[in-house]
Amino acid sequence: MLKFTFARLAALSTIVVLCVTASVSANHSWGGYHWARTENPVNLQIGSNLTTAAWRTALGSENAPSTAIFDWGLSGVLDLRLVAGRAKGNCKPTVGRIEVCNGSYGNNGWLGIAQIWITGGVHITQATTKLNDTYFNTPTYNTPAWRQLVVCQEVGHNFGIGHQDENFDNANLNTCMDYTSNPASNQHPNGHDYDQLDQIYLSHTDGYSTAAAAKLPNGVPPAMGQLDFDGRAQWGQVKKESRRESEFELDFGGGNLLVTHVFWADPQADAHQP
Predict the structure, then answer these.
(1) Hey, what CATH topology would domain 6-22+31-266 get?
(2) Whole-angstrom Cα distance, residue 111 to residue 264?
(3) Alpha-carbon gap, residue 133 to 130, rounded angstroms
(4) pLDDT for res 164
(5) Per-residue pLDDT for 270 more than 50?
(6) Distance between CA atoms of 93 and 144, rounded to whole angstroms?
């Protein structure tokens, strides 16, 4: 279990107030995907492969307030720990944990992507978050607010959380799981996000655990765990697509899937045309 600091307790008390005053039930699970576990909280390692101080600050750790790992770790169903990254290539996954990477992935249109490898139709076995410095090194996106929003959102997807709202032009919902063109108040989870995690992980436990597993479950095609799956041509079928977000699914059969969420850069910004 996490050892709570005074800062963590203060943040958690604020979240409790948000949860109590919220009038709408959380309903933004990402496809029902979740890490299999035999008990709660689920113990997850997050591997940092980040190469810059700006990204390391945004991802943070379990002891760094108002960072992605700290924020998500406030949930009572997640026990998170920052560890050294093991990703190779352009961010290959590691079984049983989340790998977070940054790099100059090119003018391919995306700010960040979250990928989850699924067995049994719903169980996450490994996950990655990729952050594209090609765009984050430009004036529009090279800000603490944009970095915090995108890393918080993509890591949130790695737990099985979807979006609360996908309209970029309406008022912010004060959560990183809300799309926006102004990230100022959308940098951290809110009470609905923690409610959703509770709904996902407290509804049941599983007969086995995929978190911290040493190998992929039996029956998973070897290629599923060996490839980088870097580009759109490798992401499979488009399940959802809009101006700023897309979801792809690569079906290996037998309930084995690779699901990719893409957060696109603003196509209206001349500086970010692919």
Answers:
(1) Collagenase (Catalytic Domain) (3.40.390)
(2) 5
(3) 10
(4) 94
(5) no
(6) 26
